[in-house]
Amino acid sequence: MNETIIMSGTEHDRYYAFTFDDGPGRLPISIWLDALEAEGAVGTFFFTGEWMDRYPERAKEIIRRGHALAPHSYHHRRMAQIPKHVFMEELKAVELAYQEATGLPCPAYMRFPYASYDDERLQWLDEAGYVDIEGVESFDWSGISAEAIAKVIIPELKNGTIVVMHSNDIAIGSPGSLKLISDVAKQQELRAVSMPTMMESLGVKPSYRSWKIMVDVPETLEYPPQDWYSVDVVLPELTAQVASWGVERHVNSASTIEEWQEQLEQPLPSRGAREWFGAREFEGSYWGYARAYESGDTLIIHEHGAKEAQADTLVYMMRWAIEQAQAAGLKRIEVRHDIRRLLQMCTQLDWKAELVSERLGDL
Q: Could you tell me which of 254, 276, 355 has the C-alpha nearest to residue 321?
């Protein structure tokens, strides 16, 4: 058996998995989520990086509602028809899109679009630290009815079955088929679980990849930060204004402004090293904020946000961070959010910066 491919789960656990490829445009993702949850099922969605860039709110909704989201290449390429450097670029691009859409590291398990792979591509996938997830094809991509989909899948239901379906604008029969399939699965005492649960039952711990941008602190700043000052105590008006911007940095872990303010009042993971909390005030209101801490020779941006969505607001934040790093004698700045836009800004400003990845174990 090729360990780079998982075709089914263990025969010993009464699990099966609903998995969905692509990502819908015109149709809401809630159609699939509602159908799964009505049956007490958890789904795994293999979506493209293009989709995650276009619909970050939907990507977060999938995870927030307890389902799994995983990569499906960035451009939905036939991966068996591209050279190695493009293959690796597709993985890198979807990982960055995943992290920026969700704020989380990207899972290192995926599905090939069109089941387009060969032994050489599987070797490349293994080199990248990935596992490919395949399974029983439902043929819902052809636009067939819910009944037709169920007729294909039900005879294949057993311990470990991985159902390959789609969540796109063509597979309109797949949401309705979930109840038909689930009814039979429940009679067999099978439980629909996520792929991480299925993988763990096989003794395979999912791994994840995180990206960050590392910026060398320049010796001088051509333009100093403007309108930034140190925040010594958390101001209620600051938290209220930032929350009104819709900035996502605090949403994943705080459901209210009060909870977020409590988080801001807690120390950062600096282990007693220096911390910074800066805010930009302009025209009588707040326009940006950033929290950072020292780790070795690096100033780590823990979270940041801006009232405006333009990329140049990252420049204002970075000038503040550079000034703090220079004063503290630090050599680098690390950022894990908005890293693609920030890399472009650094390139324009001739600040030396690079993207760095790190592989993480089971989260």
A: 276
Alpha carbon distance 18, 163 (integer Å)? 5
Residue type, 70: A
Chain centroid, CA 86 distance in Å: 21
The per-residue pLDDT for range 126-150, each reduced to its tens digit, is 999 999 999 999 999 999 999 999 9
Q: How confident is the model at residue 363 (pLDDT cuts 50, 70, 90)?
A: low
Identify the DSSP state of 286. Answer: E
Beta bridge partners of 216: 332
Helix (H/G/I), strand (E/B), else coil: 298: strand
- Residues 281, 227: contact at Cβ < 8 Å? yes
| Sign of the torsion formed by the C-alpha atoms of 44, 161, 156 and 36 | negative
pTM: 0.91
Identify the CA nearest to 249 among candidates 315, 335, 125, 190.
335
The tens digit of pLDDT for each residue in 267-304 reads 888 777 899 999 999 888 999 999 999 999 999 999 99
350: left (phi over 0), alpha (psi -120 to 50) or beta: left
Alpha-carbon distance of 45 to 288, in angstroms, equals 34
